[in-house]
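Sorry, explain these tokens?

***
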Amino acid sequence: MSHHPVFDIEKWKKVFPYSSFERPDRPRHFDTTDPDDPLDRRKPVGTAVSCPSHLCCLELVRDQYRDELNQRPSVPVDQFVWSVAEPEKPYLTKLGGVPHRESKKRWPMNRDGQPCTFVAQFCFADSRDIISTKLRGDVLLMFLPGPDPAEEPVFEWSS
């Protein structure tokens, strides 16, 4: 049973096929670059994943070059795509909002005794098959102690 909604990559690959990421109008990296060269700027490349099309592009590029690259065996990972909607269950991965934690638990405070700001939570309940079972909980909460980006975030586990 999956806690998070499952992202159907095969469905999205049909919505965003490989050809939708090709850029024939761009010049080659160098005039002498072979059109089959992976450095050809007209070919799609992976990017930071922030929406379904980015994940599709990344996966399609991997599919395209998997055999050619002769990579080592893959390592299983769980990926998620952020949603603007609140998750269906309060303990699921999300940015902002109300954290999933015991209401009686003391709120994290910074060095000056001010409350930290809740930033995100990451639910690992669907990842138990690929990560250590020695985690201290199912949900990792992240808080920022203040506006200084150099300050270390505060992490807290919740079940």
